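Researcher: Before we compare anything, I want clean individual predictions. No alignment, no superposition, just each chain on its own. First chain goes here; please echo the sequence and then give the structure tokens.
Model: Echoing the first chain and its structure:
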Amino acid sequence: MSQALLLLAALLVAPLAVASAADAACGAILCLAGEMKSSGGGDECRPYLTRYFQIEVKHHGDFSPSRTARKRLDFLEQCPSGESDTRQQVNDRYGMRQGL
């Protein structure tokens, strides 16, 4: 878990602009994992959470929770250093949620 904390610290001191999909995915994993443990990252997490929750798939014009969860997991899998268990737990919890 210390690697995750170091990565989170690096992301929090980096500029708020999200530079790449991999950075955004790693940031989203860390921020959402923090939310799951009631220790969210505050305003520093906003760009990462916004990017994650902007991923929404519609089917016949209606929000599709299962398709959205698959697309969001695809996004999270762009993080090369994320643990697959954490990635899956995050997406299981937040993947089907509509909006922030």
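Researcher: Okay. Second chain, same rules.
Model: Second chain and its structure:
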Amino acid sequence: MKDLRQRKNIRLQEYDYSQPGRYFITICTKERIFLFGDIANYTMFFREYGKIAAVELINISSHYDNVKIDKFVIMPNHVHMIINLSEFTGVKNVGAPLAAPDDTDIDNKINNNVKNTTTEAGRASAPPTIGNIVRGYKSGVSRNIGFNIWQRNYHDHIIRNEKSYKEIYKYIENNPIQWELDCHNPENPKYHDWRDE
């Protein structure tokens, strides 16, 4: 058993991931397969799975009163987002939109990072952690697609100041136009395989 490789624990020990703050999250598809779409002319063109991933991401905020997605981008084989946790009040929103959005509505929400707010009120018993939120998101996407599409873990970065927040926000915004340099792009010589981390 000693010879079996142990996965690294990439979370900060003793850190409370339910406390208010802003978190930069990256989640990759299994084997970095291009499931969500393709980049052409510095623009992301979505496949059906990419639209599902985007809609589920837009809807994260509707499940908790204290969770907001400040910015996100869906790339061919990964997702970046900034999760903003505020003080937890115990109220969450549950339910689904009253009407399913059409493709134009989905595209507008994806392009404008607009969240869906048509929900019903409910109660939550404990503040969500970043791990809860990410697991719920991954599970929702996989359930809607029909199989697990995700790499086992995810990467997080605790955003500690406004300068870092602005840099990360801009990085997410510019991700499609910098795809050739992206460390998640297998065609980039600096590609970094994080599957075992």
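Researcher: What stands out in the second chain?
Model: Helices lie at 48-58, 103-112, 130-145, 162-174. Additionally, The first helix runs from residue 48 to 58.
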